Amino acid sequence: MGNCCLGCRSQELAKQIQSTVEEENEINFIQSDILLETAASDIFASLKELNGSKGNESSIDSFDLVLDKGTFDAICLAPEQPTATSPTAAEVAETNSDKTETEKHKRVDLEARKKYLRSVRDLMDAERSVFLITSCNWTEDELVSMFGSYGFDFFGRIKHRSFTFGGVKGSTVSSVAFKLKSL
């Protein structure tokens, strides 16, 4: 596994577990970098290749259900990637000298969020697909607002147990379903 990402390690663990279980149906794992512009086409090409090797030439160009349980949360926590125009470490330190720790770490990678949303859209069929996201970092309203501005319509929710703290009712997780906006 070496210098592999967490997703790669998770996939390796799943393969090891699968190899210990006797099943009639084989599970195949396909890996793609969701932030690449070619993520969806890479996934569909891998599926076509896999199906072809099994004598099934049918083509898949979308999924009926796209699930996310933590990927968007992780992307949202990723720091902004340095660019040629990014401030130097000394400039950042000087700018941040009078800010709280939270304020210092607010420079998140908004471009990565856009890439993620584009890839999710590319995995979906405009008519039938549903995208279901579960987040522990965002409220339902925040998810609806963010995804709505990128061409997703609220479709439904999964209700989770709620609690009240300081007079405000909330939940530790939000699960929201979206469909693509009609053009």
From TrEMBL:
Key words of the record: Methyltransferase, Transferase
A GO biological process held by the record: methylation
GO molecular function, one term: protein-lysine N-methyltransferase activity
Gene Ontology, cellular component aspect: cytoplasm
Name this polypeptide is given: Protein-lysine N-methyltransferase mettl10
